[in-house]
Amino acid sequence: MSNSTLKINSDRLLNDINTLATFTEPDTPGWTRRFPSDAYIRGRQWLRKRFEQADLVTHIDVGGNLIGTLAGRQPAALPMQSGSHTDTVMGGGRYDGVLGTLGALEVARTLQETGITLQHTFNVVDYLGEEPNNFGMSCTGSRVIVGDFERDWLTRETVGRTFANAFREMGGDPDQFESLGAFDPSPRTRKLHAHFELHIEQGPVLEASGMHLGAVSGIIGIKRGVFEFEGRPDHTGSTPMTMRADALAAAAEVILETERAANETPGSVSAVGRILNEPNQINVVPAHVTFVSEVRNLDKAVILQLWARVVRMAERASAARGVQMRLHTVGETEPVIPQPWLYALVQRELHALDARTMTLPSGAGHDSNHMSKVSPVVMLFVPSAGGRSHCPEEYTAPELLALGVQALANCVLAADGVEI
């Protein structure tokens, strides 16, 4: 069937985006909606009603993911799936995650209104807790689906509640994690025909290139760990430089090496995003420093090389300064490369819709990283003004938001006709 028959309702899409933006945590900047805040819960309650109003068969699964299903003509065929998330970071913007979730909903509504019944069942998903939360976790709901969840994470506690209780508040059921294999990381059988995630770029490349759409060539992998340096708190005026055990000075060497490693390795990025320095006094030698370091690349082998370089520097810097170093690995996310048939389909459909289309990788992690364990996955990008994201200034022009959702609709319809 020609994609020209499938035209989304851009006014309805934009109205939904603006309405969801009204659910925010009080006294916070931007459009803050963190897991498991009341604002996040109320926003999902509104979203569930929107799913139901669209005549989607709607439920919250064991992992707390909100799912709306549009039945296809062939119940035995593997379903297709599209969505993203509606939680944000502190001070987040209107579009990160939201566009992909509400865009998938708009695709489902447009299919129904156009009278098109896909061969494959189509699932619209709002994945639970994609952003990093106070429990030290991200991509929460998608991890449960694919068995990338650790049992002891459920007992983590913050703000007077355990992670398990937070799942229950969001509609999940951690008591069933074991039986459904949430703690089993072994390879899974394929569960989906194709998985699509539409997203704002969260970077400056599309806008700087004058492009309107991006076919994502791969989702970057991440290696991230917590480094802890234990020195000695001495007076900065009376302790000779040669007799200090300065934890911050040792940490600084590792921070700079993290930056150098990425600068000297094409296609790589790195960061140190959080530092705790104790006792944090003007005239006291830093005694205890903790920071989180990460490296990213599309090639797992390169990620491991970068990480090994950072760790070697941590060992040398701590030994040279008489500081004790401990490394607590937080996590690792595998890079994802889309299957050739699905990536070629997306490239074709995006170029047919708007010639101002380019290919580029995703430098950020997404639920699609994890869903790749059970499905071919692919992502579509629209520009972020000024490359801004995870901040109140996050913005994508309304016509580009609508263009991205139209591209998603065209890709879903095209993939429905592909036999694997």
Please characterize this protein's 3D structure.
The chain has 420 residues and is α/β, with parallel strands linked by helices. It has 2 domains: 3-220 and 335-416, Zn peptidases (Aminopeptidase, 3-Layer(aba) Sandwich); 221-333, Alpha-Beta Plaits, CATH 3.30.70.360. It contains 11 helices and 14 strands. It has helices at residues 10-20, 38-53, 98-114, 140-146, 163-169, 205-208, 247-263, 300-320, 340-353, 367-371, 398-416; strands spanning 57-60, 66-70, 80-84, 122-126, 157-158, 161-162, 194-200, 213-219, 221-230, 269-278, 288-297, 324-333, 357-362, 377-382. The strands form 3 sheets. The chain has an 8-stranded mixed β-sheet with strand order 1-2-4-3-7-14-8-13. A hairpin with a 5-residue loop joins strand 1 (57-60) and strand 2 (66-70).
Please give the structural blueprint.
Blueprint: H1 10-20, H2 38-53, E1 57-60, E2 66-70, E3 80-84, H3 98-114, E4 122-126, H4 140-146, E5 157-158, E6 161-162, H5 163-169, E7 194-200, H6 205-208, E8 213-219, E9 221-230, H7 247-263, E10 269-278, E11 288-297, H8 300-320, E12 324-333, H9 340-353, E13 357-362, H10 367-371, E14 377-382, H11 398-416
Parallel strand pairs: 3-4, 3-7, 7-14, 8-13
Antiparallel strand pairs: 1-2, 2-4, 5-6, 8-14, 9-11, 9-12, 10-11
Helix pairs in contact: 1-3, 3-11, 7-8, 9-11
Short description:
The chain is α/β, with parallel strands linked by helices and 420 residues long. Helix content is 33%, strand content 21%.
Number of domains: 2
From the structure provided, what is the oligomeric state, counting identical versus distinct chains?
single chain
The main pleated sheet reads as: 8 strands, mixed
Element-level helix/strand string: HHEEEHEHEEHEHEEHEEHEHEHEH
Total helical elements: 11
CATH H level, superfamily name of the largest domain: Zn peptidases
Mean pLDDT: 96
Sum up the overall morphology in one term. Answer: globular
Q: How many beta-strand segments?
A: 14
Radius of gyration: 23 Å
Q: Which residue ranges are poorly predicted, with pLDDT under 50 across at least 5 consecutive positions?
A: none
Which strand-content bin applies to the residues? 15-25%
The CATH architecture classification of the largest domain is 3-Layer(aba) Sandwich
The helix content is 25-40%
* Widest β-sheet, arrangement of strands: 1-2-4-3-7-14-8-13
The fold-level CATH name of the largest domain is Aminopeptidase
